[in-house]
Design brief:
With 189 residues, the chain is an alpha/beta fold. The chain has helices spanning 4-15, 33-43, 58-61, 73-86, 140-153, 159-177, 179-182, and strands spanning 21-26, 47-51, 91-96, 101-107, 113-117, 132-136, 185-187.
Amino acid sequence: MPDEELLDRIADTASAREHPVVIGISGFCGSGKSTLARTLVHDVDGAVRMRGDDFLDPARSHRRSTDWDGVDRGRLVSTVLSPFRDRRPSTFQRYDWSSSRLGPEEPLVQAEVLIIDLIGLFHPDTLPVLDLTIWCDVHLDTATRRGLARDRALGRAHDDLWRDVWVPNEQDFVHRFAPREAADVLYSG
């Protein structure tokens, strides 16, 4: 359960805006982003969640990059984040992992608070449309151990990806964009 200070910060952010609020949660793979997002959706009135994994390109997210190129930020901003904040109708497509392509268009939900959890989210392309940024403040080694354990428990053999792609991508992204410093809130859970 998030602490009262975080919930108060979210309430203050929402009350200070004249538009629906977008809360971005980021951190390393395995840092607890999705767990925190699910908890906040339960604890924050009028909140809905958008899974960041729906905006990953699996081919690109399995390659080395210095900016988490596998995150389709352009699609996320243009079809979800900006229209949501502007209360404009929009449709978007989730990545369908079972068919390896974008799924059917679906209407963007209307709500007062949208929570998005995603690696590589605190980037110059997305920061302007995030009203509150929360960094899951877990050391990369700890997050990696957690992520590997989660993947193994799910029967996913991603050890090589973690070692050769995802951990180096995290290190490069931190060096290039300093996402922890871009966060309004550091959350250690």
